[in-house]
Write a structure and sequence with these properties.
Strand order of the largest sheet: 1-2-3-7-6-5-4
Oligomer: single chain
Strand content: 25-35%
Helix content: 25-40%
Largest sheet: 7 strands, mixed
Radius of gyration: 18 Å
CATH class of the largest domain: Alpha Beta
Number of domains: 2
CATH superfamily of the largest domain: Bira Bifunctional Protein, Domain 2
Number of helices: 7
Structural class: alpha+beta
Shape: globular
């Protein structure tokens, strides 16, 4: 048994929950449930993952006491629209953190990712949440086609609550390191309720423009130098915006506007460095 519980909005909206102390992968559990015929609208939440997955097949390390949560949904929208659910998750998590962190810790505004200061929480394209420029949380969408032709989507969210993984190639932090005494259960409660509001705004993809407006308002790095690594190549320029399709728009050095759909993003001094 665990102490995970849905927030009141999530309960009223009919969401369900399976809570775990430790699990292999909440995303894997969600997709297995979909294959077994679950209709969706169910959260899988754990204090620890032993086989968590990150983007591009990377391992997602989840020390005990952190939050690993996955929501299984079977949306009415087409796969292209469903792919924007990562932005719904980012806005939801940002709202959840704003609701539970001490006043003054979350500062909303558009700026670069370096030297954020004051516990500034920001969304990093495409799927990370930063605090003071260090990774606090990550989001991973995985999809599976069902026998009836519909698509099941597992929306995985990992939050460093008590500790950040060690030995990573990028800075990482945790709520505890930021001075916030919160539990995985606290974060999940707030997240499950914030999801209800943001998912309603998304409206089967018809409201993605509104979701992206909220996402941009908390974005890291807009107007700052950015470098995007793609298949061994590095594209450098200025991060202009996220367009209405959720693509990263870069103003390259030769003044071209380039739309990026995938890649590893680096801001600030790392982006400006020339090799």
């Amino acid at each position: 048994m665990t102490d995970f519980a849905l927030g009141p909005k999530a309960r009223a909206a009919g969401y369900r929950l399976r809570g775990y102390d430790s699990i292999g992968s909440t995303n894997a559990e969600a997709l297995a449930a979909a294959t077994a015929g679950d209709p969706g609208g169910i959260w899988f939440a754990a204090r620890q993952q032993t086989a968590g997955r990150g983007r591009r097949g990377r391992q997602w390390i989840n020390p005990h006491g952190n939050l690993a949560a996955t929501l299984l949904i079977i949306p009415e929208s087409d796969p292209t629209s469903a792919a924007t659910l990562g932005f719904v998750a980012g806005v939801s998590l940002n709202r959840a953190l704003s609701a539970i962190l001490p006043d003054g810790m979350v500062k909303i505004g558009i700026d670069g990712a370096d030297g954020l200061g004051g516990g500034r929480i920001a969304l990093k394209w495409p799927n990370d949440v930063l605090a003071d420029g260090a990774k606090l949380a990550g989001i991973l969408l995985e999809a599976s086609k069902l026998p009836n032709g519909r698509q099941a989507v597992a929306i995985g969210i990992g939050v460093n609550v008590v500790a950040a993984p060690e030995g990573l190639p990028y800075p990482a932090t945790s709520l505890a390191a930021l001075g916030a005494s919160r539990t995985a259960e606290d974060v999940f409660d707030a997240l499950s309720d914030a999801w209800v509001d943001t998912f309603g705004m998304w409206n089967d993809g018809r409201g993605i423009g509104d979701v992206l407006t909220h996402w941009r308002a908390s974005a890291a790095g807009i107007g700052a130098p950015v470098a995007v690594q793609q298949d061994g190549d590095v594209l450098r320029g200025i991060f202009e915006t996220i367009d209405d399709d959720g693509r990263l728009i870069i103003r390259a050095d030769d003044n071209r506007r380039i739309a990026i759909t995938a890649g590893d993003v680096h801001f600030g001094a790392t982006a400006s460095a020339r090799s």
